[in-house]
Amino acid sequence: MSSPSKILIVDDDPDIVEILRYNLSLEGYEVKTALNGKEAIKKANLFLPQIILLDVMMPEMNGIDACSKIRQNPSLNNSHVIFLSARAEDFTQLAAFDAGGDDYISKPVKPKILLKKISSIFKRINPNKIVKIDLGNITINKTEYKVTVNKKEIHLPRKEFELLFLLASTPNKVFSRDEIMNNVWGNQVIVGDRTIDVHIRKLREKLGDLYFKTIKGVGYKITP
Q: Hey, what CATH class is 132-222 in?
């Protein structure tokens, strides 16, 4: 397993925390735990985990508020936040995604399924992959989570940045809608096809239309 592979478990139920910690530790992951939202923020900022398993209903601070705070740390922009909750109603799940969550799993959690999901995420987190891309007057730095156009830094929301980095990682390659969906949004089933079009339109507005090419019926590519 590539190192580091760090996971933060956050839940106010000690039994759930211990079951998840035990199973994840057996797989070789470096695991830290927290029992409430405030503790989660402190440990996330120090530990910098790649994956955060986050309960919704907790004392001190709930998981949704904690996720919003965690996302304020640029060093945690690339961390995958997976909500684990017994609350399955739509408005709670939507609030979780709006706060910066990447996935939502209803309790009771099946450890084998969770382990498989986490393994899939870490397969996409390749420490040897490109972290900086130069497209002429556009530079994309994944380590610093920064995009500059003509040496002027511009701000991109997380998903716009991830979409841009994916397309720019292999210039002239046509990425299908399925590839884009799987790499940028993963298992977020609430995301519709139009979401990709909207994000491409926003990138064109901010970076210029010349770089982005639409391949009708297939997907998108970037041409340097």
A: mainly alpha
Q: Is the overall model pTM greater than 0.90, yes or no?
A: no
pLDDT digits (tens, 9 = 90+) for 114-151: 988 888 787 776 544 557 788 878 899 887 888 999 88
DSSP string, the chain: --S--EEEEE-S-HHHHHHHHHHHHHTT-EEEEESSHHHHHHHHHHH--SEEEEESS-SSS-HHHHHHHHTTSGGGTTPEEEEEES---HHHHHHHHHTT-SEEEESSP-HHHHHHHHHHHHHH--TTS--EEE-SSEEEETTTTEEEETTEEE---HHHHHHHHHHHHSTTPPEEHHHHIIIIITT-TT--HHHHHHHHHHHHHHH-SSSEEEETTTEEEE--
Structural domain boundaries of the chain? 6-124, 132-222
